[in-house]
Design goal:
With about 210 residues, this protein is α+β, with helices and mostly antiparallel strands. It has helices at about 10-20, 70-80, 90-115, 120-140, 155-165, 180-190, 190-200; strands at about 1-5, 25-30, 35, 55, 65. It folds into two domains: about 1-80, Glutaredoxin (3-Layer(aba) Sandwich), CATH 3.40.30.10; about 90-210, Up-down Bundle (Glutathione S-transferase Yfyf (Class Pi), Chain A, domain 2). The protein has a five-stranded mixed sheet, with helices on one face. A hairpin with a 7-residue loop joins strand 4 (about 55) and strand 5 (about 65). The longest helix is centred in the middle third of the chain and has 25 residues, at about 90-115. The radius of gyration is 17 Å and the shape is globular.
Length: about 210
Amino acid sequence: MKLYYSPGACSLSPHIVLREAGRTFELERVDLKTHRTATGVDFYTINPKGYVPALQLDGPGSDILTEGPAVVQYIADLVPYSHLAPPNGTFARYHMQELLNFISTEIHKQFSPLFLPDTPEPIKERQRGKLSERFLYISQNLIDKGYLTGESFTVADAYLFTMLRWCGRFDIDLAIWPNLNDYFHRVEERPAVQAALAAEGLESKRVRRSA
């Protein structure tokens, strides 16, 4: 398999899941401004939508799978013994999909205007407010849990962690929500997460926990 990624983008989520699953894979970096891959390929020929992640599958035809929530569930189902997602058809799996949809629509997309340089400041403040409401909700649900669904790391945690990494870029202080802040550092300390961050050339914030 080959994962097309951009450092620190939402493609970090399936990157983490691939490492948690112990899968063998290649990485190919994508420049999201030029839409060229590290080998010079026009990324639109790989994913016509033009954004990461894109996972090129093994086997005949080498199908391409896109959209993070779909990609991470596919990887999890390759290694069911890893418990990165509940079995298909169970109510626990539907809860997992509920979480992935919430992160995708209520957190991921709320960040989108913040990335645009021409977004007016009042709009940015409104988006930070919406994100704060979502983070409060998640923090309250982490009061008696190590991870989003309990005491086991799942693909939903990989996705949420990726979103939480963006907070520092937009002056959103996770310390406002102690449960969420502790959760962020707990996920970051996982060996697979550290390996993914290092492979993408991203700085770990683990040292901040003792500050």
